[in-house]
C-alpha cells in the first residue's frame, strides 16, 4: 500500500519535476516543436497561482447605474458578457486565462503573466458598443447653441431661428476633404463668439459671459465652409459637462439629440489642448450589429496611420449604402462606447459594406479595438469591483523566500525529531519526507494551484505533520515506561493514538473545508494544501512509520527501542 | 534520552482560577484596545480602497513619498509604509465613490512626474483595488465563515464526546480568536483576508490541541473510578503535556522561519498564525480542560442526583 502510494505520487509528480527543471530555452523549444506535448505537460504539472507567477485578477459586475435589470435579464447579460470576454481574451492571446462566473452575477477574469495591465483592462471592460450617428452641423448647431445659452442664462428659448430649417439645404457644399485628425495642429481655432459674430454681427463673447454661458467657453474649428467642430479647452471640460447636464440645457437641444465628446484631448497650435464636442442625433443610423468582421491595419494613403477596417454583413452593407446615399454632404459620427472616434463627411453613397476608423494612437490600440468589434459588444457596461495585479518579479521573490523558509523548516523539524526521538525520529523524518512528496503529488493530481498562502500552508503542514508521530511516540514511550515489551508498546501506542489523531485532525479538516468555501484564489490554495496535508500526514504517520516498525520487530525479537 | 515533562504532575487545575482571570483580563484588554483604537484596522480587502506596491531602484524615505502624494488633491491621506526592504514601499489610499481602479494609475502617474524621484526610478510590483461593496461583503463572509467553522466543530465534538466538551472546546477556541484579534489591535496591524484565513486555521489548530487533551480525559475516565473528576482531568493534561509542547514547538519553529524568511507579503499571515498557536496551546491547558471540570462540577453535578458516577459524563439537556 505504501509502495503503491509512492508510485502514484511519482507518476503525478513527474510532469511537474520535468517542467520546472527545464531551462527557459528548453521550454521554448518544446513549446514550438510540439505544442500538444507542451500543453499536456503544463496541464499535468502543478500550476502556479497568479500571486506567484504574476498576472492580473479582475472581478466584474454589471454596471447598473444607467438602467436596472430584473433577475432574468441580469443572468442573460452576465452569460453573454462571459462569452464575449472569453472570445476577446482568446483573440488577445493570453496563455491559460481563466474566465468564470462566480455566484449569480459576477465574472472573474484571471490573466496570468499579463504585462500591459491597462490594455488588458480596456479589452475586458470595453463595452464596444458601436454606433453610427448623424452630426448636427451648420445653422442648426448654432441655433441649438443659442437655445442652450438662453436656457442656461434663464432667457426664454427662442425658436424663430430654428424654424428656418431649409437654410441647411442651401448651404455651401461640404468640403471635398474631411478634416484630417492630425491636421489640426495647424488649424487656427476661433472663439465661438467670433465665429457667430462674423455671421450675426454680434460682439465676441468672453469666457464666463453670463449671457452666453456655454458658447463663451467654446472655440470652433472649421471643417470646410459651413461645418465646424466645437472645441473645449481641456481645463474647462468638467464645467461644460455640468452645463450640458443641466435639465434646461437638455431640454433646449430637444429629445432627439445628445452631446458626445471626442476621446483624448488634442494639442493645438495655440499651445492648449482641446476636446471636441459634437451634437448628434440620438437615434443611431446603424450599430455594431452590422459589423461582420474588423481588422487592424495601416491606412494605404498614409503608411504610418493605424486604422481599423470594418466589413459589414450583407444586411449591414445595404443599410449603410442607403444611409450614406440619403446623407451625402452630412457628417456621420462613428461612436464607440459613447465616444466619437471620428466624424467624417459623407462624400458619396458607399456601397460594398466597407468602412474604416482612423485616429488611433498606436497599432496596439487599433488591434484591440478590432478585437472587441469582432467579438461583439457587451450587453451592458461592466464595472471592475476588484482588481489585483502582481508583477512577475514579486512572484519570483515570493517563491524564493517560500522555498528558503520551507527548506530550513524541514531541516529544523527533522533535526529536532532526531535529537528528541533518536532512531525513531529518523523514521518520523522519513515519513515527513514522504508526506511532502505526497502533498505535492496531491496538488498535481487534483490539478490544484499553488499560491503563496499555499506555500505557507505547506510549511505549516511540515510543522504540524509530525504531530501524529509525536502522539504515537509519546504513547509508545509511556507504554514502555510501564514495562511493556517493544512489540506490545508499539501496538498499544499506535492503536490508542490513532483515535486521537483522527478526532484531532477531523476538526482541522472542518476548518480547512470552511476556509475553502470562504476563500478566493490564494486563500483557496492554502485550504487545499492544508486539506491534502492533513490526509497525507495521517497516512504517513499511521501507515508508513508503522510498517517500518512492524517489519523491524517481526524479523527479530527487539529488546530495546530507540525512541 | 531527552524526555520533556517526564511523569509531569503539575496542579494545573488548582490554578485554573488564575488561568480564567488572566484570560478574562486579556479579553477585557482586547475590548479596551479595540475601543481605544476606534475599532479594528481593516485592510482594503474589507474597507475597499487602493494599494500600490512600488519597488524603487534605490532606498526611498516614506516621508518623501508622503510629501509628493500630499501635493496631489485626493491623495493627501494616502498611507505610505516601507515594505520590508528600504527600497520597497506600499501606498494605501481610501478612494471615495468607486474610483478604486483608476486611482492606482493616478498614484503611479503622479509619482513618475515628481522631481524628487527623478533619479530614482521604480516599478509597480503589485496593485490591488477593491470596491467598497465587495469589501463589506467579504467582511460579512469572513465573520460567517468563522461562525460556521465554530458551529460545525461544536456539533462534531458534541457528537464524538458530549456537550460539555463541545462547549468547552468552542469557548477555548473563541477565546483564542478574540485574543488573537486583540494582539492585532494592540500592535496596530491590519486585518486582511489572509489574516482571517490564519484565524480560521487557528480555529482548526487550537481545537486539534484541545481535542488531544479531551481524548485523553475520556480515556482516563474509563479507568479511574474513585478519583475526583478534577484529578483525572489534571492527570490527562499532564500526560499530554509533552505532546502539546512538542507539536506546538515544531509548528512554532516553521512559522518563525516563515515569518522571518518568508517575505513581506506573507508576514502578517505568519504573524497571525504564530500568535494563534501560542494562545491556542495556552488555552487548551488553561481554558479548555478547566472549563470541562467546572461545567461538570457546577452544572452537571448540581443538577444530577448526588453521587453520580464521574467516569461516565452523561448526555444532558443544555441548561438555561
What would your notes on this structure say?
The complex is a heterodimer of chains A (563) and B (320). Chain A is α+β, with helices and mostly antiparallel strands and 563 residues long. Chain A contains 16 helices and 19 strands. Chain A folds into three domains: 1-45, no CATH class; 131-359, no CATH class; 391-555, Multidrug efflux transporter AcrB transmembrane fold. In chain A, α14 (452-481) runs parallel beside α16 (522-555). With 320 residues, chain B is α+β, with helices and mostly antiparallel strands. Chain B folds into two domains: 12-40 and 135-303, Multidrug efflux transporter AcrB transmembrane domain (Multidrug efflux transporter AcrB transmembrane fold, Up-down Bundle), CATH 1.20.1640; 49-130, Alpha-Beta Plaits (2-Layer Sandwich), CATH 3.30.70.3400. Chain B has ten helices and four strands; from the N terminus they run ααβαββαβαααααα. Chain B has helices at residues 16-36, 44-47, 62-70, 100-113, 132-160, 163-187, 193-223, 229-239, 241-261, 267-303, and strands at residues 49-56, 79-83, 85-93, 122-130. In chain B, strands 2-3-1-4 form a four-stranded antiparallel sheet. In chain B, a hairpin with a 1-residue loop joins β2 (79-83) and β3. In chain B, α1 packs across α6 (163-187). The radius of gyration of chain B is 25 Å and the shape is elongated. Mean pLDDT of chain B is 84; it is low at 307-320. At the A-B interface, α6, β18, α13, α14 and α15 of A face α4, β4, α5, α7 and α9 of B. β18 (382-390) of chain A pairs antiparallel with β4 of chain B, so a sheet runs across the interface.
